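Worked example 4.2. Below are the chains of a multi-component assembly; read each line carefully before continuing.
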Amino acid sequence: VNHSIAIVDDEHDTVQLFKEILTTNGYNVAGFTNPLLALEYIKENHKEFDLILCDYRMSYLSGYDFARKIATEINTAITIIIITAANDIGINPLKLQVYFKPLTMSKLLDLVKKHIPSV
Amino acid sequence: MIDVESIKEARIKAKNRGIKFRYVTEVTTKNISYCKEMIKYFGAEIRHLDDVKGNFEISDDGKEYVATANLQEAKPLKQLIYSNVKEIGEQQQYIFDTLWNKTISFDEKIKEIEEGIIPEVTEVIRNPHKAQELEWNLLKMATKEIQIIYSTVKAYKMQKSVGVIDYLAKLAAKNDDDDGSIIKVRILTPKDSSIQESLQDLKDNSNVDINYIEPKSGIIIKTILVDKKHSLVMELKDKGYSTEAEEKDSILSKTKTAPAIAEIGISTYSNSKPTVLSYLSIFETLWRQTELFEQLKQVDILKTEFINIAAHELRTPTQTIIGYCEMINMFPDKKDEYINPIKRNSERLYKLTQDILDVAKIESNSLKLDIEKIELNELINETVIDFIRRPLSSINHKDVKINFNPSNNNNNNNPSPLFVYADKNRIQQVIFNLLDNASKFTEKGEITLSIIEDDAENNKDNDKYNDITIRIQDTGKGIDSEILPRLFKKFATKSERGTGLGLYISKNIIEAHGGKIWTEKTSDGKGTLFVFTLPTRNNHKNNFEISF
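Applying the procedure described above to all two chains together yields the following structure tokens:
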């Protein structure tokens, strides 16, 4: 079974880009541009996912609130990595891993491999 | 001396021997004529000293000394003290000289009395009770304005506890009184949360103006200025704590706190113009400084906000460009597919660059308009086509139709040409921005552009140019009420995408053309309607370069 990754980013082009590089490298990827829809879907199907790559500055729900909801509303330990274009995300009580855009594709793959070692 | 002939004679003789007479007295309206006679007969030099009491005479640098406690006009003396002891004489000579040095000249005093001038004084008050009493009197005397600096927390609290602050609030609210006079009260106090809390009500509900000095101003005096005529400056002995926290720290180390009055040191009162105006200028400088400081802080907040938004907006398209370039290297056969997002995001970066440069031009008043006569129907038509065709256009992925109703005054199928004097590129930029906003917030439906030409006959105001009104309406989600008040300000955005610069730039462009831009409620209350006007006449002095 291939490992699944969720990408949550309100930039359509970013979702497409990350999806493209990850699927060509053998991952199953579900992309969302609306964090509320993503939350709903992941709640229902959380067992499918090994990793969530999430934007920080999004309409409707910030990356931090998204991560908090995943942690409190779903009994799961899916790793959430924040990939943001913001300057800094300020306080980070959930101790989320944060990476800043622009990320090179090789860096993105390294990051994913670190969390999902065997593809 | 004048009325008793023998005494008068003796002094005239002495004068004739070359003896010089010097007198110190309090010159009043009652004794002016008497003083004048003394000058006339004895060639005396008379100088004035306020409140001087007692009578004594010394001759020849203290050789002989005579004094009396009660001297009555032209009556024999009851008691007289006489001494020719050298030391006593010298001591009295010294006292005389000390008094002499504090006097003002007879002519100056006469002028003051004759012209009814209130003497200008600058005096040192060492008694804090007297200083406090004077402070109250000055406040009560005020008719026009009061400026106060409470430079320390204690200075403020002291005033609060004795009721000065409440009294000032009453003075500033005096406009309900019969005389209708308003006393303008301005207070400078340290920026301290306890003071700010205590003054909030006064700041909100009275005419008292309050500005807060940043802590560590280094000033340890209380200054009261009344009607630009009086100044009272009180030294404070409270070590200048400008915040309550600092003050508390110090109190902990003390066994007991001193009564408020003991905190006042030496005070200086003045009604002398140069002194009062100098203190006033110190007050005004500090006042302006506090205002500038607040403005600077606002600028700083805006700057940080700008950097954050700009960073986000720069990095987002850069991510896509860098990512797809790398992907083209990895999968060269998918080049054609990957090039599109690169184009789109390069456009977006370009647009952001233009917006930032435009804002810089607006802020430095160097945005230039290239005014020419343009036909508006054609311009809008062209703009709409460009908008739909551009690679960045999000409209292509949505079920949104753009309609344009050209101006049609002739009621036939051919729109009548409509000319305006405007900068073609800038007007296109505004329409682009408005279309971009409309398409961003409309998922499904339509965007309608229409032109309304003001009918000259219906326009009663002949001085006003006939305007052309352009309306852009969408069927989208409408404007968030939270953003509405600052819609045309910089960085006004509720969307996590976008800089919030588009409408700010658009407003400045339209206003530079002499037009206006605003939003209106749509007839069905749904969607958004932007309206802007352009003058049909060329009211620009220079056709090619207008700076604003």
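Take a moment to check your reading of the output against the notes. The beta strands of chain A are 4-8, 28-32, 49-54, 79-84, 97-100. The helical segments of chain A are 12-24, 35-44, 63-73, 105-115.
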